[in-house]
Fold:
Amino acid sequence: MKAFKQAFSVARKDLALELRTKESVNAAGAFSIAILILFSFAFDPFSEAIHELAAGLLWLTFAFAGALVFNRGFARELPNECLDTLLASPLAPSSLLIGKAIGVFFLLLLVEVVSLFVFGVFYNIRWWLHPGELALTCALASWGIAITGSVFGALTVNLRLRELMLPVIIYPLLVPLLVGAIEMTNALLGNQPFTSYEWLWAKVLIVFDIVFTSLAIALAETILVN
Amino acid sequence: MTAAIEIAHIWKYYGDYPALRDCTLSVAEGSCCALLGRNGAGKTTLLRILAGLSHFQRGTVRLFGTAPRTGETRRRTGFLGHGIGVYEDLSARENLQFFARIADVPNARGVVSGWLERVGLERVADMPVRQFSRGMRQRLALARTFLHAPNVLLLDEPFTSLDDRAIHMLSQLLVEARARQATIILSTHQLREAMAIASHVALIENGRLRFSGERTQAMLDDPALLYRLHAEPGAA
Amino acid sequence: MREKLTIALAAAGGLLLVYDLYQIFLVLPDEAMQGPIYRILFFHVPAAIVGMVGYFVALVLSVLYLSSKDLKWDSLAASVVEVSLVFSLVNIVSGSIWARVIWGIWWTWDARLTSALVGILIFLAYLMLRRAIDEPTQRGRLSAALCIFGCVDEVIVWKSIEWFRTQHPGPVLSIRTGGGHMDPAMERIFYLNFLAILLIATALVLIRTRQEATTREIDSLRRLAHAM
Structure:
């Protein structure tokens, strides 16, 4: 319970900082919109084919925009040696990691909502027909991206090649998560409710989230303390 | 008096460089030990090990009988490193409230207001730290370090670049801390200030502990005495 | 002792490989359906198994490192990953050649192919991470963490994509099928070749570990020189 309270304090602090500076949300939002515009030149935005590509396009955009968000997560703790201060404080390293992931999670959801609106306008796709299932998909996949991003953001925070190493490590690990999110979103954008096939993918996402979160908690001390 | 901090035969390597070589030091509860030595001698490394920020390869370290890095040890410890450890884009109050929350300080709101007043930042409490002068930041860092009433204080060169007001404030805080039996280890270059506050001194040279013992009147009269007596020949 | 073991393993593996090559190319007949190209199977499947098993051996070694902080486990894990990567590459390259002949395409997004590729990407990242860190204990700690995440992820990829799409041929060995899919003469050579490849892989791991140990020894001698 106390661990949760500490994690929420970290998340609250991160969100407060982000609200004030808007550094990563602005970058990620602008990036996603730019990508969505560029894709409209790559494919005919009003052809039928776009319906088949749309889900993949959306999740690739979210995954790459996500990098701009979770890259900042631990980098934010470097000035003034805040990371050392946190690690020497009574805060548990696992609470720090989970708190970071919670912060990243909400920022990712924000970027996703904005992108979805832009996407609907540009591509004439009605994505709001199954809001419950869409929310579930976004929540499950975003938590997976957030926890993976935070773990490896922490792991690479002291490396010379931090910004280069992070995507190289993260994207192969995110393959099952992104495949699942794309498959689920595919059905929703085609105005189909979830069948047993999509629910199977939902289970994969749930397993991914649970396993990665448990590993993150178990390995937090190993990853963060030198 | 019991020993609050026990360091026995520790070795610490950075890559292939031994930063600490067979250091043994014991600090009694309620005493204030000044760690002296030149840049790169190993003072910071020793403090980081005590704060649980750094592992070491050989030897043992105990703070009140428990290893560094346990939750209990960290709850008892206040650490002030080279960085001030506060967030530029939060206000002074938000910073202190955040650190109070993660340290589980009871009555956080009142304690934070008390500290803001104590370090003379109550009028700028809601301004972001980004707009603070250097002196104000340092006072905020002091408040952050003492916020959860730690009974072990690990201060890495706390006097460096402090203005007069902050030096006075820190000296006052350290005297109060000792009055409530807190144990203090601080590293410093400022011999005069250190000698005035310290009850004990330890001299580190090249990762080796050259001397440790009580601060004598002779050291107070002639702060450089220790270096002349115990420094590695030729290192000066 | 260890050196002799390495030489013995390598020699045994090498001799066995020569015998297998003779059998595979000069004795065994072409397969009825696939023609000569089926011979790739003798290398493709053992390489896949050695690669995959290697990652999970590295997982065990990483956990051992984290619990003991003994750098010996870390160097062993790194050597195993390196050798496994080589065999994984042999696996997908040989598979691609086979696919080009039988399916007419170099690559398909099938369960086994995808998980093999994801595994290679994850463990390439593992080796890149090792190169990016100079301090040995930090390197051991962080790469062990990545290895644990990587292996778990590999299981999830494998399990999830399996019922997503599969085009890859099913099991043919009699231990998986109960017999009848493969000619016993071919199967005998298959197991012999698997053994040869396993021996060579083990010898390679031993050589790499020895190099790592030498590096560590030089490192500690340098430390000692500093301490004096």
Remarks:
- Chain A has a mean pLDDT of 90.
- Chain A has one domain: 2-224.
- Residues 2-224 of chain A form one domain.
- The longest helix of chain A spans residues 93-123.
